[in-house]
Amino acid sequence: MNTTILSPTRRFLSASTLAIALAIGSVGGASLLATASVAQVSTQTFMPMSFADLVEEVKPAVVSIKVQGVQEDYRFNPREGLEFNFPDLPDDHPFRKFFDQFGAPGQNQAPSERRFEAAGSGFVISADGYVVTNNHVVDHAQKVIVIFEGGEEKEAIIIGTDERTDLALLKIEDASDLPFVEFAEEDIRIGDWVVAVGNPFGLGGSVTAGIISARGRDIGGNSYGDFLQIDAAINRGNSGGPAFNLNGKVVGVNTAIFSPNGGNVGIAFAIPADTVEQIIADLKDDGDVTRGYLGVAIQDVSKDIADSVGLPTARGALVTEPSENAPAKKAGIKSGDIIVEVNGEPIDDAKDLSRTIGSISPEEKVKIKVWRNGKNIEFKIKLATLDEDMALTPIPKEDVLKEPIEPEISSIGVVLVPNDNGDGLIIKGINEDSNAATKGFAVGDIILEVDNKSVNSLKEFESIIDDVTKSNRPSVLIKASRNNNIRFIGLPL
Questions:
Q1: E strand or H helix at 2
Q2: 233 phi and psi, to 5 degrees?
Q3: How do residues 250-289 score in pLDDT, each as one tens digit?
Q4: Tens digits of per-residue pLDDT, 441-489?
Q5: Which of 60, 81, 335, 370 has the smallest CB count inside 10 Å?
Q6: For residues 277 and 283, what is the distance between their CA atoms, to the nearest angstrom?
Q7: What are the E-state strand segments in 139-233?
Q8: How far is 93 from 106, CA to CA, in rounded Å?
């Protein structure tokens, strides 16, 4: 029985089932074990006895990356010639807040150039020498050296980089017949085994194994990564290296770790293969990545917001403001619309919409379904090309001198006065025990709309609140502005 359980090519019994069978004894053991297995036997494939064959096959295509470059540096030179330099001061270092407030040594001096060397990992994806790594591995590089398993070194050029996904494509010049690996076509699942190969701490050729711990992770505010979380040991220097499935295909590019001390704690992040393939193909084509551009500022949909607009489930991306002259506004999408589908695929949240639109080529037409006034409306929109500098620019309001108006407290527990410098009502005071305070409203916020209707007086405000209350909706949708940033809040009534 033990031989059957440990065989890598057979199915295996769960530990709990095996323990029960052994405790019962051998009397009728076969029958009892068969009966128990119907309800409790796992159908997962047991882990291989060794990863050695897999590693032997893929390791020749995994390389170390050595970078030489120059970057700007600020130095402070007192009379005695002492020199201080803090290029790697962590964000959570106790001196960081001091330097942010008072300035780091040499901050007001002209920058000087500092030469540096860095190391990372990568992998060959074609016989003629294309190599994938992370953008941050080759950032500011003047010379890139690719080091193979046997120690052979070859110089590479940077074909292109993409900062948003932290990917880079290199090319070894005059290469041919190099060992290479391929990307996985099959979908990877949480719990699947992965093997990571890379160059941690410059040691080169290190192999670790683990499982996919989670999918769809958002790290560092990245809108496009959709990272895999893995628990294989990943450390500094592993960046840009591959994570393989048990078929020897690349399922992700190791790019970051979560660590309080800079070392492995079992939480690492990899860019999934489908994202890597798409970006690398774009970089290979012309050295640049082009993304579709819809032109909307968006936020997630909370349950309160969903309740306030009658949306059955709290999902989608709420449009806070469409950009001027952008495809979305030209097509008729408005502030307050909730984008729930793109090309028939459901949109879960704001990140999902950003990734979906970013993965579509510019000039392509897309079908976008929005939730507006209690029903779905479909738009066909031709995407533009994303410009990294594109941003919403607030429209300045003309200053108008008006007679001062006495503030009045509203039914939601905030003191409101008309906005002398534009539309809406300014919050001048707030009851700390109110739902408005709980939901994050603060003095100085400007309420622009209530239930998708403009408000410029307390009378208008209260009239809309009354209508929402009479309709038996548990929440009201409020559009507010803080420091020229628009947001929507579902406020329970």
A1: helix 2-6
A2: -65, 115
A3: 999 999 888 777 677 889 999 999 999 989 999 998 888 8
A4: 988 899 999 999 999 888 899 999 999 999 889 999 999 998 888 899 9
A5: 81
A6: 10
A7: 141-147, 153-162, 167-172, 193-198, 206-217, 227-230
A8: 19
Paired residues of 160 in beta bridges: 169
Place of tokens 């502030």: 335
User: Which of the residues are catalytic?
Assistant: 136, 166, 239
H or E segment to which residue 274 belongs: helix 273-286
Angle, helices 29-40 vs 15-24, to 10°: value is 160
Which residues have CB under 8 Å from 357's CB, separation 6+?
A: 291, 292, 293, 294, 342, 366, 383
The model's pLDDT over 194-223, given as tens digits with 9 standing for 90+, comes to 999 998 888 888 999 999 999 988 776 555
How is residue 288 written in tokens?
């640049």
- Residue 295 is encoded by which pair of tokens? 């032109």
Please answer whether residues 317 and 357 qualify as being in contact, where contact means their C-beta atoms are separated by less than 8 angstroms: no
Tell me how far apart the alpha carbons of residues 374 and 254 are, in angstroms, rounded to a whole number: 43
Q: List own/partner pairs for 224-227 with CB under 8 A and 24 or more apart.
A: 224/164, 224/165, 224/275, 224/354, 224/355, 224/358, 224/359, 225/165, 225/166, 225/255, 225/269, 225/271, 225/275, 226/272, 226/275, 226/351, 226/355, 227/255, 227/256, 227/269, 227/270, 227/271, 227/272
